[in-house]
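Design request, tokens follow.
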């Protein structure tokens, strides 16, 4: 995902781990800071649009199948 969406160009320091199927990508920072999993639009990808969705990967996984609650 990261290379396909050119994350190193548009959102350096982040890696994409998937999408929500609605035009947004789930990303996390390579350095681990800030901690958590974040959502960012695939089109118009900029740091200012990075939105936290979970405080950790395990918290992210726990939300599968539930209504998403932003962190």
């Amino acid at each position: 995902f990261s290379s396909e969406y050119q994350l190193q160009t548009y959102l350096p320091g982040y890696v994409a781990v998937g999408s929500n199927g609605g035009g947004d990508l789930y990303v996390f920072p390579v350095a681990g800071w800030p901690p958590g999993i974040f959502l960012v639009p695939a089109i118009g990808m900029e740091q200012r649009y990075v939105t936290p969705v979970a405080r950790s990967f395990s918290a992210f996984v726990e939300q599968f199948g539930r209504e998403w609650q932003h962190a």
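Comment from the thread starter after seeing the answer: thanks! Strands lie at 14-19, 24-29, 37-41, 51-54.
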